[in-house]
Each structure stands twice: as C-alpha cells, then as structure tokens.
Batch of 3 targets.
Target 1
Amino acid sequence: MLKHSDIWAAIDALARDNGLTASALARKAGLDPTTFNKSKRITREGKARWPSTESVAKVLDATGANLGRFLGYIENGGSANRPAPTIPLIGFAQAGDRGFFDDAGYPLGGGWDEIPFPEIGDPHAYALEISGDSMEPLFRDGDVVIVSPSASVRRGDRVVVRTTEGEVMVKQLARLTARRIELASINPAHPGRVLATEEVAWLARILWASQ
C-alpha cells in the first residue's frame, strides 16, 4: 500500500540524489518552485495532499530517472542502501543572519538543512541556495552553489562575499590587494563593488553550481 509519507520521501530522495533542493527540483521540472514545499504536503484542514501523477512524470523526465527507480525510493521510504555524504545547506537570505558562520566564514551552529554531495576535501564546505535574479543569467533563483571557505581564491573566481554589515553577495573577484577588494557583477544590470578590506568579514570560493 502506498503511503503519503513514502511518496514525498521518494521525491525528496530524487532531489537529493541530483544535488537539488525540493524547490530546485520543481523548477527544473518546469513546475512552480513551491510545488514540493513541505508546507504544501498537508492542507489547512490537516488532510494529506498527494503530488499529482503529472508532477511525478515531469520530475522523472527532468532528472532522467525511470519509474522503477522512483518505486525503489518509495519501497525504501526514500532511503538509499548506503547513506550519501551530506553538506550543510542554507538559503541565500539567511546567510546574512548571525549565528550561521564563525568569523572565518565557516558554517556554525544549527538551523542548517543538508543535501547529499560527494566528498570535496573541505570539511567546512556548504551549499547556498540562490534567491532572486541579481545573479542571472549565470545563477538563477533556486540554483544551489557549493562554497568552500578553505579554498584559495584568485582573480576571476566566483565568490560569496559577506560584509561586516551582514550583506551577502555573489560576485566575480576582479582584484584583491592588501587594501581593497574589487568585485565584478555577474548580472550586467547590477553594478560591481569596490570594498575596503576592513569592510569584508570573509569571502569564499564557489566550486560548483547545480543548474
């Protein structure tokens, strides 16, 4: 017998194994990004809301998975035979809040979700889910970027920068000196930035993006 919780666990597992959040999976399938939100899985009246067969078909097509694989997820309640390595995940808007990073820009404390991702050699690596259109066309709303605070950065790298005021941005490193950091904008509609080094709390290199 199919269970409501197992169906949703299978969708979450399909997203996880493709390095996506549930919202990014929905967008990849051409659906509204909120289609698979946990808040939509139960109605206001407390009744179970099931994903439509059309939605399931679209995510299978978008990820290249077949029905047999999806049924396997259902049978195992979304669990894989061997747990995949995971890294912390945070939303872009949350990245400016206190309590999520230490002074070096390493993930800190609770409040993080997790997504599976292969070992990349940085125990402090984390995933950041993009929101908004300020980083288009390279990064779109719902894309996930993998950030390595331990990786060295050089000119031309795409980086996440947090200012001492708590502003977080994704830019391309144009120049780095002892006194200032020059950042080029990814979206030509938005200006670049020049910051004094004392205005920057930390910057970290982007290693990978799911698109």
Target 2
Amino acid sequence: MKIEETVILVDRDDQEIGTMEKMEAHLQGKLHRAFSVFIFNKKGELLLQRRAEGKYHSGGKWTNTCCSHPRPGELTFAAAHRRLQEEMGMAAELNFVFSFVYCAAIQDDLVENEYDHVFFGITDALPIPDHDEVSSFKYITMARLAVDLKENPGDYTRWLAICFDEVMDHYQQLQIADGL
C-alpha cells in the first residue's frame, strides 16, 4: 500500500498556508515548497540522474541530482538530506544557494508550481540509486550540459532548464571560491 504524500502549500514569500495531497496540488497547480539538490564531484562535474520511467511525471528525463518536497513539519534542509539518501543512496554536506519560484505545465494536466530551494554539495562518493526513483546517472561538465540543454531540451526536466542559468552563475562563483 502506497502512503499518501502531502506537500506544504506556501505563498510567494514561502510562508506556509496549508497542506495538500501531492497529486492534487499538482493537478490544481497550487504553489508548494520544494527543493533541488546539485551534487558536484571534485572535478567540478555535476551528477545528473535519469528519472525512472515509472515516475508520476517526467519519467525518463535527465535532471539534477535529487529533488522533492519537504514533508509537513520537516525542515527543507533536512528533507534535502533525506531524499539525497533515499533517491541516490548517498550523503554530502549541503549548502543552501538560492531559491526560485516557477510554474510550468509538465504533462497530463499536471502543473509544477513550486517555491524551490536549491542546495549544492561536493563529494566524490558514488551514488547507489533507488531504481524505483532513478534509472541511471552520469557526471557531466556544466559547459557540456549548457550545450545539451539547448540542443536536446526534451531530454531534460522543465525545472532544470528553468533554473540552469542561475545554477551556472553560482557554480562559477563556487569554482572561483573553491578552486574547482
């Protein structure tokens, strides 16, 4: 029996205004809290995952290392660590980098309307993905990903394309600061 998942509804300032069953929130296009994790190895390559075909949306598409929603009462930072372990079978020190709000129709009358908190981490640990969540993974340079997002946008999730420029800006700052 699958447990019903609940998301945290928020306003444009990320203030909680309620909760809703996850699928219903996506059907109604309600703004809710989410997070996206970007893990880089020490060579500066980004760890991408290919979402499992059976996911409720965007199955088979490449995306950032991990993304999901915090549970009611769960801190977003703690949820990011939890899902990184659940989806990718790995742990890393995570740092909050930025937030963004986006709204995008994705498929089958589903709408992603999210207040998304973005975290970066650096580790050379190899993932051990949950195959119900992730069909494969790869490391890619940010320069190559920038080109591929333009040449093959349908291969990637909408949210990755939407936030990529800001991720790249912060990545370049990280490279300078950490000598990657």
Target 3
Amino acid sequence: MNLIEAAQALDRLGFMPSKSGNLSLRTARGFIITPSGLPYEALTEGELVELDLAGAVIGGQRRPSSEWRLHQAIYAARPDAMAVVHTHSPRATALSCARRDIPPFHYMIALAGGDDIRCSRYATFGTPELAEAAIEALAGRRACLLANHGVVAIGQDIRAATTLAREVENLGGQYLDLLAAGIAPVSLTPAEMEAVRDQFEGYGQRLRLFPSPSPAPLSRPG
C-alpha cells in the first residue's frame, strides 16, 4: 500500500469528509504529505508534496496540507514514526468533540500502545499549538484523538498507520454504542493490558504494526 492508495481507501470509508484529513510518509530528506484542497479520488503521485523537517517545501508543485505542522512535529518528536495518518472518521471524531479518552474497555486499545487512547487538549487546526497538543497526547502512544477535531495514528509504514486509524474508529464506535445504551463498560486492569501488549509484540512485528528497533527511512511512497 502506498500513500495514495491509503488516502483513497480511507476516503472511500468516509474518514476524510470534504477533503479533510491528511497522510504522510517519512523520507530521507523529511516527509511527503498529501496536498491541500485536492479530492483524494483525483490524487496522483505528482501532486504529493515533500517538505524537509524544518517545514520548507523541497518537492512538488502544490501547497502541502494545512496540517503539515502536525506531521512535522510528530516526525521531529517520534523517531519511531515512519508514517502519519490524520482522519476525521465520524465516530472517533464524535468522541473527540466530547473530549473523552477511550478507556481500556477492549483489549484492542493496546494496539495504540497504552492503557487508553487519549484525547488531546483543544487547539486551532493548522497551528503549532495543535501540533504540541498532539505530541503531548501521543506520549507513550501510537494514536490519539484531537479535541473537537479527529484522529492521529502513527506507524512503521503507511499500512500500519492506516490499520491503526481504522481500529481507533472501530473502538470509538463500540465505546459510543455502550454509552448510548447506558451500559457502563468494564475496563481491563493495567496488568491485563500489559499482558495484552506482551502478546501483541510478536503479532505486531509480523504485521509491521509496531516499529522495529532501527527502521530505515522511506524515500518515496509505493
């Protein structure tokens, strides 16, 4: 799966309404990101934009996504992040609008790296403040909710980051269903979640869900 395939697949799922959301891949020089304002169904490789880690455009003819600062900050703060997926998937985004963390009501929460999926503090889209809020919420995690905004997931490659973004939406929907039914979810204990993460380590390496000790930079998507 390359960057364009991932963007188009998420768009077909309804995760990127009104040209929202964005995806990127780390490169040897910085990162490649989807452009601003272009429908994903029309996206071609020539319309991707490459930036260095200082945020300067070094490749491509279009404007980068308005959330390039978010991606830049994640790559600078997280050497394990080789790909970043940001969606506005509907049910996880609904939880973000309530500024609710997703608790460990299901063992798959561990896929995001911790005992919950945090919701960040609020900040205006496209700003350095949003990037800072995301970095805080991602501490010790591979995914978070952005308050009143959406979802961010990171991975060893674009498939791993996309898989995680889809699972966050799935978990968000299940959690909302419990809340709507008036049923209080029973959370797993820290020890139970630790056991799950131990089980995931071998499983995740086979599926490339988790970073290898020394991931090699990706030069181009595809």
